[in-house]
Design a protein that fits this description.
By secondary structure, this protein is α+β, with helices and mostly antiparallel strands. It folds into three domains: 56 residues, Arc Repressor Mutant, subunit A (Orthogonal Bundle); 191 residues, Bira Bifunctional Protein, Domain 2 (BirA Bifunctional Protein, domain 2, 2-Layer Sandwich), CATH 3.30.930; 43 residues, SH3 type barrels, CATH 2.30.30.100. Helix 2 crosses helix 3 and helix 5 packs across helix 7. It is elongated.
Length: 308
Amino acid sequence: MKTRILNQLRAASGIISGESLSAEFGISRVSIWKHIRKLQEIGYNIIATPKGYRLIDSLDALFPWEFPGRESKIHYFDEVGSTMEIARDLARKGCPDFTVVVSGKQKKGRGRLQRVWLSSDGGLYFTLILRPKIPPVLCFRINFLASQVLAETLRTMFNINAMVKWPNDILVNNKKISGMLSEMETEADLVTFVNIGIGLNVNNDPTHNEPNAISLKKILNHEISRKKILSEYLDQFEKRMINPDFENIIPEWKKYTMTLNQSVRIVTTQDVTEGIAIDVDENGALILRLADGSTKKVIYGDCFLQNT
């Protein structure tokens, strides 16, 4: 009902009466008033006059009703420890494919290798729960597709040169704007779920603690709608997941990467490797040429570009 009331208020050129809303939705004017009050309490700027109601402006809100057609699959929280933790619990309880957990802030956001992902107000923090009917060996390609689609979405929406850095960070102007983390559970030889957690710097300012990071607001010099980004990304990614072309995911991803032909340092929990990134193989591993001329395959780790 909140979605329907908001849509009517947005479509109206001026004030719309409570009587009109009541007749449109088949509920009492008192019920309309209660829904309006609730919307006002959570931050929507709706003025009430003797003649009716008018929406002055909308929140950059991530509530389920802001995503028509997805309401039942959006789980919004003002603040959580980690969207990945909540998503894992929902996935194990059988939630449907393409369920999304999104939060305004995270207290325990994390990146790869258990690093902290700062998750302050203004950023976009969400985890996608996917149930692809594929063998576990192909799951890594979904991660590459997720980062590629995010880069494409940012390029299309904001005309910025978003690039992917192995394995799945997004950089703009050589500074990190987004990070991605995934986890998977399997049963026998099939995937039970793949959860992909994404943190995107939108209207927050990460530079105080992460000087090599950047946000969309810093790049574009104005506030950005997180809702529009999330809605567009979900639409584009879901389209690609309907019939994913697994054979071409890595080649397509390479079109947007800034990692290849760069001097890199790869950090894992066990060691550090330096070399020239010469390729990403069909299994998503990064191929390095080492100083002695030999090559090394790196399956996981944090990648740092040496020349930036």
